[in-house]
Amino acid sequence: MNIKILGALSAVALLAACTTPTTPTTAPGATQASIVPGSQEDLVANVGDRVFYDFNKSTVRADAKGTLDKQAAWLAKFGSVNVQIAGNCDERGTEEYNLALGNRRASAASSYLKAKGVAAARVTTISYGKDRPTAQGSNEQAWAQNRNAITSVR
Fold first, then answer.
1. By the 8 A CB rule, do 24 and 32 touch?
2. pLDDT band at residue 6 using 50, 70 and 90 as cut-offs
3. Rounded Cα gap, residues 30 and 94, in angstroms
4. Residues 33-54: what's their mean pLDDT?
5. What is the pLDDT of residues 47-81, one digit of tens each?
6. From CA 48, how far away is CA 150, in angstroms rounded?
7. Is there a contact between 87 and 106 (Cβ–Cβ < 8 Å)?
8. Which of 11, 12, 25, 123 has the most neighbouring CB atoms within 10 Å?
9. What is the largest CA-CA distance in the chain?
10. Phi, psi (rounded to 5 degrees) for 60
11. What's the order of all strands across the beta sheet hosting 50-52?
12. Where are the alpha helices (DSSP H) in the chain?
């Protein structure tokens, strides 16, 4: 009888040792426990810091509204946090055109947040045009990643 109980306990211990623990999704290089509420890492890990745009467009896409809604709620929760929204473009087009388009993209995201109740004084915008790509490459996949507006805690 004792051998059966000992065998059963050994089997349970063996199975428990084989399971893989799950870890929550966090910002690269950060653990959930090390993320400070209201920080850039918190924004990235729990809300999302970027929205994407269509080619040559600056209108907020339907899929971006969910992220911006979460950003507005996060900013309401952390009332002392200010943010900067950087508009970015893919590599195609002139420097002047892309700076203007990046500005329109940042402004569109900013206007959306303000319409959701975020105070205008808490949001600044900047355009980097095509100067700060987030994805390398000269293909549609890279270009789609580079057509964005990125929100950063200031």
1. yes
2. very low
3. 37
4. 96
5. 999 999 999 999 999 999 999 999 999 999 999 99
6. 9
7. yes
8. 123
9. 83
10. -70, 120
11. 50-52, 148-153, 83-88, 123-129
12. 2-18, 40-46, 62-77, 95-115, 140-146
Burial of residue 41 (number of CB atoms within 10 Å: 0-12, 13-18, 19+):
buried
Give the whole-angstrom CA distance, residue 120 versus residue 114: 6
Cα separation, 118 vs 112, in Å, equals: 9
Q: Which CATH class is domain 27-153?
A: alpha beta
- Give me the residue spans of the domains in the chain: 27-153
Q: Tell me: pLDDT of 22 over 70.
A: no
Amino acid at 81: V
- Put simply, whether the predicted model's pTM sits higher than 0.90 gets the answer no
- Residue 31 — very low, low, confident or very high, per pLDDT cuts 50/70/90? low
How is residue 5 written in tokens?
């109980």
CA distance 25 to 47: 11
